[in-house]
Amino acid sequence: MGTVYMIPNVIAGGTADQVIAPQVREILPKLKYFLVEDVRTARRYISSLKLGIRIEDLVFEKVDKKTGPAEIGHLMRPVLEGKDVGVISESGCPGVADPGAAVAAFAHGKGIKVVPMVGPSSLLLALMASGFNGQSFAFIGYLPIDKAQRRKRIIAVEKKSEEENQTQIFIETPYRNEALLGALLRNLKPSTKLCIARDVTGEEEFVVTKSVGEWKKSAPELKKVPTVFLVQGQFNKKKG
């Protein structure tokens, strides 16, 4: 059987030289078969690394959130027959908030080796810079779009952080960044800490932690740029 290589992509344009590890550059020329979230993005990414790879010699198959187990099984047949495969996300690390996780899960079920490769993760980088609890944290994905449900979820997230001293991490579709920030500032307690990590590793990188009360005085302009939000409530340690 072949091997599944989980290959990180950049999370900000023009940063490959700074954030893509030599390990990735060494393995890519050896691969001919790829399962990717977006074919065009993957082709452009590999070309941008300037490794002398002929893109036309490569085979790309799409694996996104709509790809079911049966199709993944079909796409993994070459790997079962001995061919190595590279899994590439549209942005960042495959398998982390990414459809590539289903490929890794299938591989483990068949006894196929899965190799994670070093690369940028906006979630981990934001946590590193936030000053929040890095021993207990949770990535909860996207908050509800419906205003009432979103408010309810924000309050629940804050409560969990307070009770368990756990950092809560979430993201939003860039064009809804401003709406989410507004909801956070309206519904979180003034004393709760909020870290805003915008364009991590990019030219306009902005990672700042303040209390919600402080953010209300000077909220940043997030624009339509990928942003990670982290919440740390005041820990209410229960006395036994």
From TrEMBL:
- Provide the GO MF annotations for this entry: methyltransferase activity
Pfam families reported for this sequence: TP_methylase (PF00590)
CDD domains from the xrefs?
RsmI_like
Does the record bear Methyltransferase in its keywords? yes
Q: Locate the transmembrane regions by residue number.
A: 123-145
Report if keyword Transmembrane helix is assigned.
yes
Recorded source organism is Fulvitalea axinellae
Q: Which UniProt keywords apply?
A: Cytoplasm, Membrane, Methyltransferase, rRNA processing, S-adenosyl-L-methionine, Transferase, Transmembrane, Transmembrane helix
State the name under which the record lists this protein.
S-adenosylmethionine-dependent methyltransferase
Look up the record and give one Gene Ontology term from the biological process aspect.
Answer: rRNA processing
Q: Where is the Tetrapyrrole methylase domain?
A: 76-214
User: Which InterPro entries does this chain map to?
Assistant: 4pyrrol_Mease, 4pyrrol_Methylase_sf, 4pyrrole_Mease_sub1, 4pyrrole_Mease_sub2, rRNA_ssu_MeTfrase_I
